[in-house]
């Protein structure tokens, strides 16, 4: 059976994107800070998810990696964070989906 092509009606949730800024404090140290307001809130679709378990601090912890699709945007970066359904994700990879400038595919890791 052939896989169904992604359509705009499949975008069933809202993704909020935040840029991460590198700031320098008074002591000369660099800090990573997120913008308070999202730079974009767009419809999104979850395409796939896979979870792994790693041992962190001597206890098993789930690490979820998920792939989302949004309408084409060229301002999403691999250093951004996004929030979908109350869950925060660190964006790890951004690529163009099928069709010329039709979709942006985002691979993100769930933030613990």
Automatic annotation (TrEMBL):
It comes from the Bacteria. InterPro entries: Phage_SPP1_head-tail_adaptor, SSP1_head-tail_sf. This is Phage head-tail adaptor. The lineage of its organism: Bacteria, Pseudomonadati, Bacteroidota, Cytophagia, Cytophagales.
